[in-house]
Amino acid sequence: MQQRKQQFFIAAGVAVAAGIAVLSGYVKPTAAAVPPVGPPEVGVLVVQPQKVALTIELAGRAFPYVAAEVRPQIAGIVKQLLFQEGADVGAGEALYRVDPATYHARHDSARASLAKTETDFATARINLDYTRLRSLISGASANRA
């Protein structure tokens, strides 16, 4: 019996909840929601004949039939590009401006190496001349004795 009462109260609660859900969704239509009765407004447009260009836009890709990759032939930091991408360039035309600091350092190093070599050469020549004179002097003194 107790179980029947529980089932009854559960069923009654579900029925009341369903009724509240249904009734809460019901709204009376207001006067603003009702469209006005009468003829609808209509716009008029006069069509004039005219020439129109027929154009078609299609997706695609363009590939060059000749492509050249331009690179400097020397190593260094590129400071400036002297040509426009896609422009024609002539033979012997400058294309890049390269940072000269690296080349100035190499030039100065080569000049210092040359100066050292010239000094070593002069020293060797003096030593050679000294050795020859010494052998001549010792040979001449041997002949006198």
Calculate the terminal CA-CA distance, rounded to whole Å.
159 Å
Report the count of strand segments.
2
Question: In terms of per-residue confidence, which ranges show pLDDT below 50 for 5 or more consecutive residues?
Answer: none
Radius of gyration: 53 Å
Put simply, the count of helices is 2
Mean pLDDT reading = 82
> Given the helix and strand composition, which structural class is it?
mainly alpha
> Per the principal axes of the C-alpha atoms, what is the gross shape?
elongated
Q: Which percent band covers the strand fraction? A: under 5%
- Give the ordered list of helices and strands: HEEH
Architecture overview:
This protein has 145 residues and is mostly helical. It has a domain at 99-145. Helix content is 46%, strand content 5%. The chain has helices at residues 2-24, 101-144, and strands at 78-81, 96-98. Strands 1-2 form a two-stranded antiparallel sheet. It starts with a helix and ends with a helix.
